Amino acid sequence: MTTFAWLGLIVVVAIAAFFLGSMITKKQLKHDDLEQQVQSAKHELEQYRQEVADHLASTKKLMTKMQDSYSQLLIHVEETDKALLNAKPAMPDEPFFSKETTEQLQASLQSRPERRREAKNDTLSAQPSDYAEGETGIFSGESSEVEQSKAS
């Protein structure tokens, strides 16, 4: 073969090598880019998992604290209930009124039902205090005469 043929062959091989290298390089760059995206996604997933774990841990602490508070409240209510139910007055009950006043009140209460019965019988037979005998107001005969004089 001649030099010209060798030269053509070298040029063709160089062009083919150039395109083949660029394709391999592009694939390698895409592969590196995808690998970087995978690493980024894994990092984000791990970060999200850590945030969820932290959130669950703080929720657990709050729930434990709330449960302790509820238990303390329940114990307090039970103790207060026992104290109120079992509490006995230390001093004897003092009367509100003196002995003489109490006796007078009892005496007046005993005499009251009789007065009520008597007053009840009186009120049943008596007329109401606002009752007027005879014709009064617009039902009286005088008002009709007044109306007739006003009409004429």
TrEMBL record:
Residues 112-121 have a biased composition (Basic and acidic residues). It is a single-pass membrane protein. GO terms for cellular component: plasma membrane. The chain crosses the membrane at residues 6-24. Its main location: membrane. Residues 24-58 form a coiled coil. GO terms for biological process: cell division; regulation of cell shape. Keywords: Cell cycle, Cell division, Cell inner membrane, Cell membrane, Cell shape, Coiled coil, Membrane, Transmembrane, Transmembrane helix. Residues 86-152 are annotated as: Disordered. It comes from the Bacteria. It is found in: Cell inner membrane. PANTHER family: INNER MEMBRANE PROTEIN YHCB. Belongs to the ZapG family. This is Z-ring associated protein G. It comes from Pseudoalteromonas phenolica.
